[in-house]
Write a structure and sequence with these properties.
Blueprint lengths: L1 H5 L2 H15 L2 H33 L5 H5 L1 H10 L6 H11 L4 H14 L2 H17 L6 H16 L9 H10 L7 H35 L1 H14 L1
Helix pairs in contact: 2-11, 3-8, 3-11, 5-6, 5-11, 6-7, 6-11, 7-11, 8-9, 8-11, 9-10, 11-12
């Protein structure tokens, strides 16, 4: 029965999106374009922060972490799937940053599933966008609640597009924000934001692995990280 339900599901999702888009005006479409642009600016800023942290921890040039992790990052961006970059990320961490194999084998698969910074940024932007769209007055307690909600729900959110709407719905509804257009936002912006989101997840996971290795052996690990990264 489950497989039977899946057969008309794409048509049903299309009809839902078509209904909302038929009622959308030029102002809403412009707002969606602004949403995508803002997400890219924020996503690139988060990516630069991660690269900067790695540069400081490993005491290497600011651009060196990007060069060392170029293969897994390119794979994640090109395929829109952080799982494709798993092996490449593990190999790069071990060869370029001196991360022990057991640490990389543990942190990277865990991080791809439960450390998805790309989804967190996407959820945060979507929640704020919905609030502004419906004229919700944000206050400090609401922003704190939203921050905690999108972090917890986004960190382990699996999938993309319209399927993310039910995951975000409890967070925005709990803050008094209607979720009616969430499925439209996720479905229409997915092709423009998904690749960067996957890249952020892989970068955040690699950063977590390096910091974990640094915390296990404070003295020796720093020298290994610096030497391995500079050797690239």
């Amino acid at each position: 029965m489950f497989h039977w339900v899946l057969i008309p599901l794409p048509l049903g999702l299309f009809c839902i999106v078509a209904y909302h888009m038929s009622e959308a005006d030029t102002e809403l479409l412009l707002a969606l374009a602004t949403f995508v642009g803002g997400f890219w600016i924020a996503g690139l800023a988060v990516l630069l922060v991660h690269l900067g942290v790695l540069a400081v921890v490993c005491r290497i040039a600011p651009w060196q972490p990007l060069v060392s992790l170029r293969t897994p990052l390119i794979l994640a961006f090109a395929t829109d799937n952080p799982f494709v970059a798993l092996k490449s990320a593990i190999d790069s961490l071990q060869e370029r940053f001196g991360v022990p194999r057991e640490v990389a084998d543990t942190i990277v698969p865990f991080g791809v599933l439960a450390n998805q910074h790309g989804q967190i940024v996407l959820f945060a932007f979507t929640a704020m966008f919905l609030g502004q769209l419906y004229g919700v007055d944000f206050n400090i307690p609401m922003l704190i609640a939203l921050a905690l909600g999108v972090t917890i729900s986004g960190a382990a959110a699996v999938g993309g597009g319209a399927v993310l709407a039910p995951i975000l719905a409890p967070v925005v509804l709990g803050a008094g924000i209607p979720d009616a257009l969430a499925i439209v936002i996720f479905a229409t912006t997915q092709p423009a934001v998904a690749n960067l989101g996957s890249t952020l997840t892989v970068q955040a996971t690699c950063s977590l692995a390096v910091l974990t290795a640094r915390g296990r052996e404070p003295a020796d690990s720093l020298g290994q990280l610096q030497t391995a990264a500079e050797a690239d």
